[in-house]
TrEMBL record:
Catalyzes the formation of 4-diphosphocytidyl-2-C-methyl-D-erythritol from CTP and 2-C-methyl-D-erythritol 4-phosphate (MEP). CDD domains: CDP-ME_synthetase. This is 2-C-methyl-D-erythritol 4-phosphate cytidylyltransferase. InterPro entries: IspD (IPR001228), IspD/TarI (IPR034683), IspD/TarI_cytidylyltransf_bact (IPR050088), ISPD_synthase_CS (IPR018294), Nucleotide-diphossugar_trans (IPR029044). GO terms for biological process: isopentenyl diphosphate biosynthetic process, methylerythritol 4-phosphate pathway. PANTHER family: 2-C-METHYL-D-ERYTHRITOL 4-PHOSPHATE CYTIDYLYLTRANSFERASE, CHLOROPLASTIC.
């Protein structure tokens, strides 16, 4: 199942506390966003990458794309004021009958097996998201007081990629523009159309690098994957 992917990379990464785009941080000697691009570069089902960037970062990101021989980047598109607007800048460039994935540049540990399962479901249903079951106890609070303990059996933590038929995602974004609605993710915009969004179980390694603490987990995942490769080569 072939697809194209939009990778928003225009955020400021303020929670990382760096004073620069966190995607330039090096992880195992490569910038974070290059790790992410390499996954799609090496996936034979990926027909192209739309990288959405800020005007300040565009030159440096373009240079790094060339340096690391990422050949599937169709264009570097300048982002908008919100992530949602950035995604739409790319969505409107796509053909309506295409399957498009939207994936956070700061999730470098996505795997092609998960992408393949997600894409297959999106082809069948029109909209699908990767997610993992919530493991922690979740409590609803008011101020600093617990109001209730939420039943977690039906709660999932949503990840990316999220996959859609382009015609559906375009309609969802255009309705959001008319309604001046800002959603938490692309799936939330699609849900407003009454379109069912299918859950595809993902992997707990598919973390988003948001705060400095996440880098410790990222380094552990890198080490674990290297160890698994070494064991498989014995």
């Amino acid at each position: 199942m072939t697809y194209e992917v939009i990778i928003p990379a225009a955020g400021q990464g303020k929670r990382m506390g760096l004073g620069k785009n966190k995607l330039f941080l090096e992880l195992d000697r490569l910038p974070v966003f290059i790790h992410t691009l390499i996954v799609f570069e090496n996936d034979p089902n990926c027909n192209g990458i739309w990288l959405v960037v800020s005007s300040d970062d565009k030159k440096e990101m373009n240079e790094l794309v060339k340096k690391y021989a990422i050949t599937k980047v169709i264009a570097l598109i300048e982002g908008g004021t919100e992530r949602q607007h950035s995604v739409y800048h790319a969505v409107k460039e796509l053909s309506d009958d295409t399957i498009v994935l939207v994936h956070d540049a700061a999730r470098p540990f996505i795997q092609t097996e998960q992408i393949a399962r997600l894409t297959k479901v999106a082809v069948e249903s029109g909209a699908a998201v990767l997610a993992v079951p919530i493991k922690d106890t979740i409590k609803k609070v008011d101020g600093d007081l617990v109001v209730e303990t939420v039943e977690r059996s039906s709660l999932w933590a949503i990840q990316t990629p999220q996959a859609f038929r382009v015609s559906i995602l375009k309609e969802a974004h255009e309705k959001a523009i008319v309604d001046t609605y800002i959603g938490t993710d692309d799936a939330s915009l699609v849900e407003r159309l009454g379109q069912a969004v299918q859950i595809v179980e993902g992997n707990y390694d598919n973390i988003k690098l948001t705060t400095p603490e996440d880098l410790y987990f990222a380094e552990a995942i890198v080490a674990k994957r290297k160890e698994n490769i070494a064991d498989s080569n014995k």
